[in-house]
Amino acid sequence: MNRHLISAGDLSLDDALLILDTADELAHMAERPVKKLPTLRGRTVVNLFYEDSTRTRISFEAAAKRLSADVINFSAKGSSVAKGESLKDTALTLEAMGADAVVIRHSASGAPRRLAGWVRGSVVNAGDGAHEHPTQALVDAFTMRRRLGRLDGLRVTIVGDVLHSRVARSNVLLLSTLGAEVTLVAPPTLLPVAVGGWPCSVCYDLDVALPKADVVMMLRVQQERMNAAYFPSVREYSRRYGLDAARMALLPDHGIVMHPGPMNRGVEIAAEVADSGRSTIVEQVANGVSVRMAVLYLLLGGSGAQQ
Amino acid sequence: MTGTWLIRGARPLGGDPADVLICGEMILGIGAKLDAPAVRRGSQRADGAQSLDADGLIMLPGLVDLHTHLREPGREDAETVSTGTAAAALGGFTAVHAMANTDPVADTAGVVEQIWRLGRQAGRCDVRPVGAVTVGLAGSRLAELGAMADSAARVRVFSDDGRCVHDAVLMRRALEYVRAFDGVIAQHAQEPRLTHGAQVNEGEISGRLGLTGWPAVAEEAIIARDCLLAAHVGSALHACHVSTAGSVEIIRWAKSKGWQVTAEATPHHLLLTEQLAAGYDPVFKVNPPLRTAEDVQALRVGLSDGTIDCVATDHAPHPLEDKETEWEAAAFGMTGLETALSVVHEALVEPGLLDWAGVADRMSTRPAVIGRLSGHGRLLPGEPANLVLYDPSPRDVIDPGAQASKSRNSPFAGMVLPGRVVATFLRGKPTVLDGKLAW
Amino acid sequence: MMPAADRAGRDQHAAGAAASAAEGSRRDPTRRDPTRRGESPAKAVLEPAEINRALTRIAHEILERTSGADDVVLLGIPTRGVPLARRLAERLEQVEGRTIPAGSLDITMYRDDLRMRPARALGHTEVPADGIDDRIVVLVDDVLYSGRTVRAALDALGDIGRPRAVELAVLVDRGHRELPIRADYVGKNLPTSQREVVRVLLAEVDGRDTVLLGEAGRVNS
């Protein structure tokens, strides 16, 4: 039995729905005067963040604290990690501290998988290199379901640098498990060579894909990719793959716009689109806490699968 | 311990059982039931010959590895000439070519002679240093290839292995220059710009795992270019660790033109595929990377039909701290000396793609020819007694902890592989007896 | 990825599956009744009519004790406490002629035995819009046994607001309290041994109304 959440592909349909349904219930917490549940009292959750990410770390921290868990933050800067301590030594330290769960964000794909071999607690992948970001995909699916009422048969279009995107990988896996139809839109240089084997379709033309999209998710595109010749210029990228107000009007009436953040306003997404009513960017923050509470509860709240 | 050895009942090249008589450094005779007077005549010592019962054992000429990393000087924490040659002997090797990416780099007569001497001192296996093609492996200036060739180490194989000689002009010059002393350039084919930051084969695995891919074309494009260059200047090219089906095709084409192109494949590329990387365990991280099942099959067929001339281990030991990390931070490379023969047994002999005579050819005779190495590769009376006795029958779990190499990064750990080396003789002196070091 | 979550939730109550299977076998004589394992099958200790009479009586008791149920909020504990609370609310509304707030309070996150089994799916919590502050909360559940569920419910209520008073209504009190907890309103007192199992089936969840008592293993554990 899997006691970690490292890849969205680890989740069966039942697992995924359980997390979303649990998050639905926990979302009501925000309306209560006492936003705390005693469920994880006495458990220790360690946030091991090798990459800077205030938003995700705070989201996990809030989720753990609302479940009464103790939270320890280990960020790369100024710690033994910055001084070159190996991942394995850090893992041994966490073991000695009795961490029940380690939430890890790392720039190297596969770091959570390696960590899982060295700790007894649960490992939650908060983003590893270009590999995956499963809780982000769960938050995205949760938001889609809340806004549009369903996931099965939903048409989701993901636009941007798929090749380097862990959010894209997790979303493709999770959404196809949940029965959604995923389309990837990007220049060919930003799609993996073997994308034909992925459970989704591919399109190079954003204007063709938009009218058929219930959800369009814009991925951040990095300046460095231009320097590595993935596309000729930011201007050309934006013109061909950016979501501006004109393109937003191509969406069906109920269509929503998502962005995992942080955004490059004016590159992949125009300011007025980011701020429009179709955009889910703000509600994602609250949803993030509910979903992460559900994940932590389901991993740590019971007897768990520890052997 | 040199003296007279009578090896009874071995199967030379997998053929019918025969006795083999070794006297001093030489094979005196091979035949069914060598008679007692011949034995006595050949004996140099009054107390007679030592005897070794080799019933059921295959006898091959001592294996010759064209591609080994002994790490000394510079990375003695990973391996030394002493431990590396111990591993080689246990693997049935009587000669290894030690690659030049040491620290300092083996780009001068001084360094190659040092390595050569260390090999002689250890005395377990002939060590033939490989000379770097460019100074410091930096790829900008030719190293003193002539001086290395003339040195006591008598270098004939030159390689920047670890790096590719990617500059076409420099590669041309190197190919031309070594003609003067019958040298051969062994190219590590890897177009650097196409493989910047590459971690695994580019394909299904790289996309799924989110790791930068190492496309097959980066190897094939260089091999194609170098075959054409070698033909153009009339020189000899050796392709290191060929790993893709496309490379095999290109080499087959080049050979059909009569060009002086030879090629090697590693044991791990003959058995393992990229799928093993799925768990992110860097014991499977190697350069060139593990490829697809189609590539593995093409390499096997290539080795079988002789397009690929030989098996070379690319034995690359690394200390634990360089492998017990996240994938991207880990070093590239796998050990291989002690498992090579078993892997070839499993990957080629078992499926009927190669018989034992073929194994002898690919793992001893041809590599000796390519390395311009005399005294190895031939199991005949009058030749130096460099030979290995191999028991093909057991099947055992591979345990890196029990290996002589200083490093434990074997991708075959936990796998069941056939066979075991029982004895190795280096010019009549047993370096391995009963599966254990005898020297 | 997740340990299989126990959607059935609480210890004494099984999914309605076996009960519906039993129902099915009653309709189709060729299907085996799964509640019949040994020589003696589970015994029905409350029939539908008795259940309804009990609920009507409890409703009147609530009205009496709260002098007209002015500030009463009914909160059913999932799973079967919820339809019971709804039925009580209907009866109160019939008498008083106005809507009585009723909702549900899931106590999974407050249980004291969480670590003994894999993490369970949550039931639905719905607190009526006017909240519980200064109200009389009547918790409603099907069976009162050790009292731990009610203890968890009291903790949960404490995090939601501050009721003026909390009372407890149960359909069946089967004894064997492990905490100092008692019910204010009881449908039926049912002395049991700890080897026995009590199953409440309700039409809204299980397709029929009955209360079964039997040996563990005979009443689909």
Q: Short description, anyone?
A:
The complex is a heterotrimer of chains A (307), B (439) and C (221). Chain B is of the alpha/beta class. Chain B has helices at residues 36-42, 81-90, 109-122, 145-150, 168-177, 204-209, 216-233, 245-256, 267-271, 293-305, 340-349, 356-370; strands spanning 4-12, 18-23, 26-31, 50-53, 58-61, 63-68, 93-98, 126-129, 157-158, 184-187, 200-201, 213-214, 237-239, 261-265, 310-311, 387-397, 416-426, 429-433, 436-437.
Q: What name is given to the CATH topology of the largest domain in chain A? A: Rossmann fold
| Unreliable parts of chain A | none
What is the CATH-assigned architecture of the domain at 49-194 in chain C?
Answer: 3-Layer(aba) Sandwich
Q: From the helix content, strand content and strand pairing of chain C, which structural class follows?
A: alpha/beta
Supply the CATH class of the largest domain in chain A: Alpha Beta
| Spatial gap, N to C terminus of chain A | 9 Å
CATH hierarchy class name of the domain at 49-194 in chain C: Alpha Beta
CATH architecture verdict of the largest domain in chain A: 3-Layer(aba) Sandwich
Strand order of the largest sheet of chain A: 7-6-5-8-9
Assembly status: heterotrimer
Strand content of chain C: 15-25%
Strand elements of chain A, count: 9
Percent of residues in helices of chain C: 25-40%
Number of domains of chain A: 2
Query: Which sequence of SSEs, written as H and E, runs from N to C of chain C?
Result: HEHEHEEHEEEHE
Please tell me about this protein's structure.
The complex is a heterotrimer of chains A (307), B (439) and C (221). Chain A is an alpha/beta fold and 307 residues long. Chain A has helices spanning 13-27, 54-66, 87-97, 111-116, 134-148, 166-177, 206-209, 223-227, 234-241, 245-248, 271-274, 283-300, and strands at 44-49, 70-75, 101-106, 122-128, 155-159, 181-185, 201-203, 215-218, 256-258. Chain A has 2 domains: 8-132 and 285-300, Aspartate/ornithine carbamoyltransferase (Rossmann fold), CATH 3.40.50; 134-282, Aspartate/ornithine carbamoyltransferase (Rossmann fold, 3-Layer(aba) Sandwich). Chain A is built from 12 helices and 9 strands. In chain A, helix 4 links the parallel strand 3 and strand 4 (122-128). In chain A, helix 1 (13-27) packs across helix 12, helix 2 crosses helix 12 and helix 5 packs across helix 12. Chain B has 2 domains: 4-59 and 382-437, Roll (Urease, subunit C, domain 1); 62-370, Metal-dependent hydrolases (TIM Barrel), CATH 3.20.20. In chain B, helix 5 (168-177) packs across helix 7. Chain C is α/β, with parallel strands linked by helices. In chain C, strand 2, helix 3 (81-96) and strand 3 form a beta-alpha-beta unit. In chain C, strands 3-2-4-5-6 form a 5-stranded parallel sheet, with helices on both faces. Chain C has a domain at 49-194: Rossmann fold (3-Layer(aba) Sandwich), CATH 3.40.50. In chain C, helix 2 crosses helix 3 (81-96). The longest helix of chain C is centred in the first third of the chain and has 18 residues, at 48-65. The chains are: A alpha/beta (307), B alpha/beta (439), C alpha/beta (221). The A-C interface holds A 1-5, 10-12, 15, 18-19, 21-22, 25-26, 28, 32-34, 36-39, 67, 297-305 and C 1-3, 5, 106, 109-110, 114-125, 155, 158-161.
